[in-house]
């Protein structure tokens, strides 16, 4: 291509696309609404899978750098009941296919791999319109405008670029996370640190659960899962951290204190993270000069695959563009033909898993989880 590919969004999918294009000598410009790389925290741990996310890292030529980010031991996992009894545990011997890294460090790795000036910070998209012949005009909040022959929406759940292709809007799925952190957990919260262990913790129950991760050092990152209508969450004042934490913790009355301390002993104010999804199998007709990657294309319930899929989308799109010089439409058609069924399959599996858990009662929720992980382990050993 003679003009840069215009990428909207400097998340993992957009940056992977920019990097793979750079590897193939194709220029790209990334426009990001945030004012800088440090404008906000970038979330917690990600398990980057050997069947999708790591393939993207390889395509980006960054496997050595990626391995330097992996936190040893974090693939360890345990499932507890609400009283704190260990029901299931597996260690991390370093041979698993889903090593854990910090999302912020992974994003920094991608940013550092791009030529200076590739990302244009502080460019919030306010509008986009088709000009004909595959060209599009993107407008920004500062009154700036860019006209491009290829625009890629990597701008997440509430994508502005998606409106060029689809009328689909994300819908709330009836579940949300409440996110908290504990710092210096081994010294300040030893009982809770012991309960979490060296990797991840799951304490499931019907309609709710507590999930925690040991991040770098002795930081514990918690996601409290609650299946409730948004109207229920609207009754909680999240601008009052103590009151919000107490209200959420009340849903776990009678649980072991070392578990509920992940909520009540917060070092950061509880943050509400509602879950939204696009329809399973979301797709669009081939439209010249535009496509989507990541959540902009296939937002789905939290399942550990979102970041992996976004990165693989970016890598596959970048390679398709490189494989068809001078023929962008063939590249986009090839990319979408592979991306649509891949995303639909994982979204459908995620829904089936959610239905399986929602149909279980009492300790059967934990038993269902244990059976799933046992099946996964057996399949991995067999392969």
Automatic annotation (TrEMBL):
<dbReference type="InterPro" id="IPR043683">
    <property type="entry name" value="TetX_monooxygenase"/>
</dbReference>
<feature type="binding site">
    <location>
        <position position="295"/>
    </location>
    <ligand>
        <name>FAD</name>
    </ligand>
</feature>
<keyword id="KW-0521">NADP</keyword>
<protein>
    <recommendedName>
        <fullName>Flavin-dependent monooxygenase</fullName>
        <ecNumber>1.14.13.-</ecNumber>
    </recommendedName>
</protein>
<dbReference type="Pfam" id="PF01494">
    <property type="entry name" value="FAD_binding_3"/>
</dbReference>
<keyword id="KW-0560">Oxidoreductase</keyword>
<dbReference type="InterPro" id="IPR002938">
    <property type="entry name" value="FAD-bd"/>
</dbReference>
<feature type="domain" description="FAD-binding">
    <location>
        <begin position="3"/>
        <end position="348"/>
    </location>
</feature>
<keyword id="KW-0547">Nucleotide-binding</keyword>
<feature type="binding site">
    <location>
        <position position="103"/>
    </location>
    <ligand>
        <name>FAD</name>
    </ligand>
</feature>
<dbReference type="InterPro" id="IPR036188">
    <property type="entry name" value="FAD/NAD-bd_sf"/>
</dbReference>
<keyword id="KW-0274">FAD</keyword>
<keyword id="KW-0503">Monooxygenase</keyword>
<feature type="binding site">
    <location>
        <position position="47"/>
    </location>
    <ligand>
        <name>FAD</name>
    </ligand>
</feature>
<comment type="function">
    <text>An FAD-requiring monooxygenase active on some tetracycline antibiotic derivatives, which leads to their inactivation. Hydroxylates carbon 11a of tetracycline and some analogs.</text>
</comment>
<comment type="subunit">
    <text>Monomer.</text>
</comment>
<keyword id="KW-0963">Cytoplasm</keyword>
<comment type="similarity">
    <text>Belongs to the aromatic-ring hydroxylase family. TetX subfamily.</text>
</comment>
<keyword id="KW-0285">Flavoprotein</keyword>
<feature type="binding site">
    <location>
        <position position="40"/>
    </location>
    <ligand>
        <name>NADPH</name>
    </ligand>
</feature>
